[in-house]
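Trying the structure run again after the queue cleared.
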Amino acid sequence: MHKSSRTPNKLSNVQTVADWMVAIRDPNPKVRAEAIRSLASTSIGGCKPEGILLTGLATALQDESPRVRAEAANMLTLIDTQDESTFIGLTNALQDPYRVVRKYATVAIANHGAAAVPALTKALHDSASIVREHAAFALGCLLAENARPALPALITALNDPDLSVRESVALAISIIGPKSTDSIPSLIVVLRDPCSNVREHIENAFIAFGPAARSAVPALIAALRDSDFKVVESAAKVLGLIGLAGDDDVAALMVALAHPEFIVRSRAAEELGAIGSAAAAAVPALIAALNDDYYCVVTHARKALHTIRTQLLRTTRQIQTSLAMLDSEPN
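Done. Tokens:
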């Protein structure tokens, strides 16, 4: 009981920055760790955690106690700073022998923006899966233009043996948005990943390519028969966004109109409407969808039918006008 009361007794006198600097140099590592944690719930002397406090945290990253180093790295995840001393400290912390310290350091260093990308890219190869997972997460938190140089390493990391790492990597890729079409073949392969979340995230990554991702259409069509409805719904959405026109595409979406999950049927009807008159073959299936038990399916089916009809009528009028002009010309 005596030992557990020492930390709060010592910290009860911490009211100024000077008091806090003394506390993080206390011989007892528990006191040092608690002093760092206290920054999350208090503003010492009305001062925000910057300046000398950041210097203190940077110093704590080199503490002999793993607990203190971990608390310092964790605290820096909450502070949006470009302070050079903390950046150097976090870069070094990514080499810490304790994986918890490295885990927090990956998230904290992301606050430094583009400057953190090389260190985070290297952390994708860390020996601890929890660190690799958080490195991918951190890259996904950066502005897309800042994180894009890390995409080749992220795409390679899609082969990581750890499922949680692959999920985090796939999500980061979908957020950043790949631009180089050279990566499309590698991403298509990942659509067969055993983890449904990975498959769903990678499907969303194809949105960034737009029509340039047409080579992924066969794989996305195959995904419409996935066992996970989220993957199917996502595939239908992506197919519509990258542009569809082929008969196979329409046929696949017609199959999706009969999917057991209503959200998939709704998305399929919506994407058939996005295709427009080229989806005329789906009219019977869309008419049948007007009797669906779910309002959203009925709504999207009605909209799709209206769009198809409008475009077909416009085309018919154009043909009639052209024929009338030809008929009016003298022989």
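The radius of gyration is 28 Å. Worth checking whether this holds up in the mutant runs.
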